[in-house]
Design a protein that fits this description.
Blueprint lengths: L1 H21 L6 E2 L2 E2 L1 E7 L3 H17 L3 E7 L4 H10 L6 E4 L2 H9 L10 H7 L2 H6 L1 E2 L2 E2 L1 E8 L2 E5 H7 L7 H13 L12 H16 L1 H8 L8 H14 L8 H5 L4 H8 L8 E3 L4 H4 L12 E5 L10 E11 L4 H10 L2 H10 L17 H12 L2 E4 L7 H4 L5 H11 L4 H17 L1
Parallel strand pairs: 3-4, 3-5, 12-13
Antiparallel strand pairs: 1-2, 5-12, 6-7, 8-12, 9-10, 9-11
Helix pairs in contact: 1-2, 1-15, 2-16, 7-8, 9-10, 9-11, 9-19, 19-20
């Protein structure tokens, strides 16, 4: 009980610190904490929403006069937030899956600086996350939830039945996939209905095949999408998505499979497919439904290397907390979310990696999560999700840009030149706006 009282006191102190930062101008808080209401829009739904609500619970208890309205918007966050801003009624806070979108909002003056939280963020985060959260040197974003997207999850029984082990290279991955198919089970469950999973696949391949320098240039659009390195990565990607009879439902089925379903296909006994290629958040998607246990039922291996003797590479992502209304409640909540105490709550529930360096490894719910979180922290080469760094119209909008064009690539994986040209045309248009 003593530790719990200390924890509430720490939360309350953060709220009071935020009030001090705004002086008497805000007027929305009380000396006991903050009151009124704060609205949040985030992509987290289902189990992820339940975990975020658990994170908010101690903050709400420490501030009983505050009402929090949460909206889980899934992949429609960019459109919903943009529409709310255009209508003059933005949320107080939104968690955006793309720093590129944060940059756009900041440059338009819609997002508000969070320089009041720089101290607590600098204390708990590595400099790279402060840099990613800044626009023209001013801090606008707090990365609350990180992700190691360079992971492949597999059904242990399916691998044992086929007599295969986790591959270290893409060439070995293809061999493993063929052996699994011969055992009578599709190797891959692919969420083609969600375009972002396909961009993740490409980005993992491109980082390992082209290297960090070209990855940075493509991210900034200083080389075109018709560059030879892009086409080479597309050809490697086609070796996986082009093996359509080794994908559950073939390519047509893949394009109708959403992300949660792609995970469920693998995380069941018997499995419908052996592997799902996605980030460290995969187990959290089915945490309340799967009966499989970590290690004995499902396991994970790093995304295979493309070239021999390359450094351990991680492509990662993160959900960035952005403030659209500057008020004491929003300031207090952002300051709270920057603490290791807040992140630890979700870490213990699973399906979560925190960029917060002061979250103890023991907080993670199982050995696999500790493994993937450590991989994120200790990667020799780390790059942020390329699509998330793009203008939203190109990198993170359903039905257009990268998401749509990579879906087209699943439909026709032999059309490398055509897809590269369309990607470049879409990128050029987005960067002109």
């Amino acid at each position: 009980m003593r530790n719990y009282r200390w924890y509430l006191a720490a939360v309350l102190a953060l709220g009071l610190a935020a009030l001090a930062a705004v002086g008497t101008a805000g007027g929305a808080g009380e000396r006991q904490g903050v009151s009124g209401s704060v609205s949040i829009i985030a992509k987290w739904t289902g189990d992820e929403q339940a975990s975020f609500q658990a994170v908010l619970a101690p903050f709400k208890k420490a501030n009983p006069g505050l009402k929090i309205k949460y909206t889980g918007a899934g992949d429609n966050v960019p459109q919903i937030v943009s529409t709310a801003i255009a209508g003059g009624n933005p949320p107080d806070i939104a968690t955006l899956p793309q720093p590129g979108l944060m940059k756009q909002f900041a440059e338009r003056g819609a997002a508000k600086p969070i320089t009041f939280a720089r101290g607590v963020i600098a204390k708990n985060y590595a400099p790279v996350w402060l840099s990613l959260g800044s626009v023209k040197g001013k801090l606008y974003g707090l990365f609350f939830k990180g992700a190691n997207k360079s992971t492949v999850w597999y059904n242990v029984a399916a691998f044992k039945a086929a007599g295969v082990k986790a591959p270290a290279t893409v060439a070995q991955l293809r061999q493993v996939a063929q052996t699994i198919k011969a055992s009578g089970l599709p190797a891959y469950s692919i969420a083609g209905a969600d375009g972002w999973t396909l961009t993740d696949l490409f980005e993992n391949i491109y980082l390992r095949q082209a290297g960090g320098a070209l990855y940075d240039r493509l991210s900034a659009h200083t080389i075109p999408w018709t560059h030879p390195s892009v086409k080479a990565a597309l050809r490697t990607m086609a070796l996986i998505i082009g093996d359509s009879d080794n994908i559950l439902g073939n390519k047509s089925g893949a394009l109708q499979t959403d992300f949660p379903t792609s995970v469920s296909n693998v995380f069941q006994n018997p499995a419908k497919a052996a592997m799902v290629i996605e980030g460290d958040f995969v187990p959290g998607v089915v945490a309340s439904s799967t009966k499989l246990k970590p290690i004995s039922g499902y396991n994970v291996f790093p995304f295979p290397s493309v070239r021999p003797a390359t450094k351990a590479s991680v492509m990662g992502g993160g959900d960035v907390v952005v403030m659209f209304k500057d008020n004491p409640a929003a300031r207090a909540l952002i300051s709270y979310l920057a603490t290791p105490q807040a992140a630890t709550i979700w870490a213990k529930r699973g399906g979560f990696s925190s960029p917060n360096k002061n979250v103890k490894p023991g907080a993670y719910s199982d050995a696999l999560t500790r493994k993937t979180a450590t991989g994120l922290a200790q990667a020799s080469l780390f790059r942020f999700d390329l699509s998330d760094l793009q203008p939203a119209a190109f990198g993170s909008t359903a039905g257009q840009g990268m998401w749509k064009l990579f879906q087209d690539f699943v439909e026709k994986p032999t059309d490398v030149n055509g897809i590269a040209a369309k990607l470049e045309a879409s990128a050029a248009k987005a960067y002109k706006k």
